[in-house]
Design goal:
Distance between the termini: 151 Å
Order of helices and strands: H
Number of strands: 0
Radius of gyration: 45 Å
Oligomer: single chain
Structural class: mainly alpha
Number of helices: 1
């Protein structure tokens, strides 16, 4: 071997370990980039799911508020009905007394 070919073979011997290191690093970077892409996609899906859950929660809160309002109105209506029934019973008693007094006269 000549000195020139010895120098080239030494350089290629030095490059082979570096090339394998760079190849290994490139594979790791590609794997990490792939993981990052998957994580970003998952993050997007989770954000969309969180937004949908927040919208559903808002809708359910509105439904609960409407139900509470309807329950309150029902309670008010029940109280008015009870008052009307008491008033009706009182009016009926008065009418019966008037009828009885007219029949006795």
């Amino acid at each position: 071997m000549t000195n020139v070919s010895k120098g080239k073979s030494e350089k290629s011997a030095d490059l082979d370990p570096l090339e394998s290191v760079f190849s290994l690093l490139e594979k790791r970077v590609e794997a990490l980039a792939s993981r990052l892409k998957a994580a970003l996609e998952e993050n997007g899906k989770l954000k969309a799911a969180a937004a949908a859950a927040a919208a559903e929660r808002t809708s359910l809160e509105a439904q609960i508020a409407e139900a509470k309002k309807a329950a309150s109105q029902a309670d008010d209506a029940a109280a008015r009905l009870k008052a009307y029934e008491a008033e009706r019973a009182e009016v009926r008693a008065r009418i019966e007394r008037l009828i009885a007094s007219l029949e006795g006269a």
